[in-house]
Specification:
The protein has helices at residues 2-12, 26-34, 56-67, 72-81, 103-112, 114-123, 148-157; strands at residues 41-46, 128-132, 135-140, 163-167, 174-176, 179-183, 189-192. With 203 residues, the chain is an alpha+beta fold. Helix 1 (2-12) runs parallel beside helix 5 and helix 3 (56-67) crosses helix 5. The radius of gyration is 18 Å and the shape is globular.
């Protein structure tokens, strides 16, 4: 947990006194996407499946950009990535990818995906987006649009996989973890608790 907290601090510049797990930032993420302004097309990119496929080299590149290759933290992460993982029959199940053990996976995955943030911002300056670990929402307007195939290729070039879908105002919502996300008829992003959502009422 100490290593996770350290990388949390490096990523966000601080560590709260409590609620310092990445999942505790989910509320901030929902708040961010609801403040994207008027949207004509809302894209959802899901890179979460990449957590089990992300190359070790990509993780280490992300860590190195923060702490350098000669640091203790870098060496600890490198050792962690080289842990062997086996199934209940004794067969090795991790080949050149990150072992799945808990919070450290989310923290390292989140840190690594900052490279996506950098490349997307460079390619599409002016287009608002919010990312929570591997889940991304992109707000397009009539004047500012993305090329979804170009974004897909960019993610694949990072050694990651993803799914991409979009919604326009008034259509059925997108599903995001424990919430539903939709555009109302005015193009405003609205986040619903599934138990409060009614298809004929977009609030």
């Amino acid at each position: 947990m100490a290593l996770s907290i350290h990388f949390y601090r490096l990523t966000y510049g601080y560590v709260p006194k409590e609620n310092y797990r990445l999942l505790d930032r989910l509320g901030l993420f929902y708040s961010g996407i609801q403040n994207m302004g008027k949207v004509s097309r809302l894209y959802q990119i899901n890179m979460d499946p990449s957590l089990q496929l992300i190359p070790e080299s990509l993780v280490l590149d992300g860590v190195k950009s923060f702490v350098g290759a000669d640091s203790v933290c870098y060496k600890l992460v490198s050792s962690f990535l080289n842990l062997e993982t086996f199934d209940e029959d004794g067969r090795k199940i991790c080949f050149g990818c990150m072992p799945i053990v808990g919070e450290i996976n989310r923290v390292l995955f989140n840190l690594t995906l900052m490279e996506f943030d950098r490349q997307f911002s460079h390619k599409y300056p002016g287009i608002a987006f919010e990312r929570f670990i591997g889940m991304v929402f992109i707000a397009c307007t009539d004047d500012l649009r993305i090329d979804e195939y170009q974004v897909f290729d960019m993610i694949q070039d990072l050694g990651l996989s993803c799914s991409i879908e979009y919604k326009e105002p008034g259509l059925e919502p997108l599903y995001c973890r424990n919430r539903m996300v939709a555009l109302d008829y005015e193009g405003k992003v609205v986040v619903y608790n599934p138990t409060d959502y009614y298809p004929t009422d977009y609030g």
